[in-house]
């Protein structure tokens, strides 16, 4: 039977309507949630992502601001901007778009952001709290993936989830969030020997390897929920995922498209984090 396609775009729209209500309520209490995005350099993909984030803010009523800086900015100057944003009471969320130019330490910048305003969920304090199950701002893509799985109505508890990719942004946090939902999680990565022997056991398969079309029908257990986090631009200029969509949709029970699957959920979780940060900071 063909898979049900999980259109993140539609689910994100639902959630954003709910978030708009939460923003309206905060505004009645005199709090206007604010997000500041810092973008260094002129990478076209980063510019496009950042515009999407600003549009998302506008949609739900969050005040947003983008600070554009030339790639020649020094690490010290960038850190100074972050420190000022940390002190600004109108700014509840700070996001420095990655990647940064090679002369700037991403670690130094992420650690400089106040953990209470770290709406990416990348600060070591937030990562640590997530790992041990304390409340924290959660990494947006990982949180969006789990939200999508929940929206299928499936019970995650007791399921075998296989995650391909061990990045700090997606693979690692998604594995912790799924363990929190009581799934049994197997981590696979570029050095895994005989990858299909693992993927074929997955009730939930999360593919975040960044390798176009690497997962085919033969790699998927019939009836599995397959979440494709990959975004790859192939030679023709087309954006494709890590999963061979047309093949896998014949065997999976649920499958996300690329684009229009996980992407819109990432931005929605960023909006959710900004609202949460505003609420926490007002306490
Ligand atoms: N670059 C690509 N994805 C992300 C993200 O989620 N957050 C930040 N800050 N930069 C990114």
From TrEMBL:
UniProt GO MF annotations: methenyltetrahydrofolate cyclohydrolase activity; methylenetetrahydrofolate dehydrogenase (NADP+) activity
Pathway membership: One-carbon metabolism; tetrahydrofolate interconversion
UniProt cross-references to InterPro entries, sorted A to Z: Aminoacid_DH-like_N_sf, NAD(P)-bd_dom_sf, THF_DH/CycHdrlase, THF_DH/CycHdrlase_cat_dom, THF_DH/CycHdrlase_CS, THF_DH/CycHdrlase_NAD-bd_dom
Residues bound to NADP(+): 165-167, 231
Domain Tetrahydrofolate dehydrogenase/cyclohydrolase NAD(P)-binding stretches: 139-280
Catalyzed chemical reaction(s): (6R)-5,10-methylene-5,6,7,8-tetrahydrofolate + NADP(+) = (6R)-5,10-methenyltetrahydrofolate + NADPH; (6R)-5,10-methenyltetrahydrofolate + H2O = (6R)-10-formyltetrahydrofolate + H(+)
Cellular component GO terms held in the UniProt record: cytosol
A single BP term in Gene Ontology: purine nucleotide biosynthetic process
Keyword field: Amino-acid biosynthesis, Histidine biosynthesis, Hydrolase, Methionine biosynthesis, Multifunctional enzyme, NADP, One-carbon metabolism, Oxidoreductase, Purine biosynthesis
Listed EC numbers: 1.5.1.5, 3.5.4.9
Stretches assigned to the Tetrahydrofolate dehydrogenase/cyclohydrolase catalytic domain: 6-120
Biological function: Catalyzes the oxidation of 5,10-methylenetetrahydrofolate to 5,10-methenyltetrahydrofolate and then the hydrolysis of 5,10-methenyltetrahydrofolate to 10-formyltetrahydrofolate.
Family: Belongs to the tetrahydrofolate dehydrogenase/cyclohydrolase family.
Quaternary context: Homodimer.
Annotated protein name in UniProt: Bifunctional protein FolD
Organism annotation: Brevibacillus borstelensis AK1
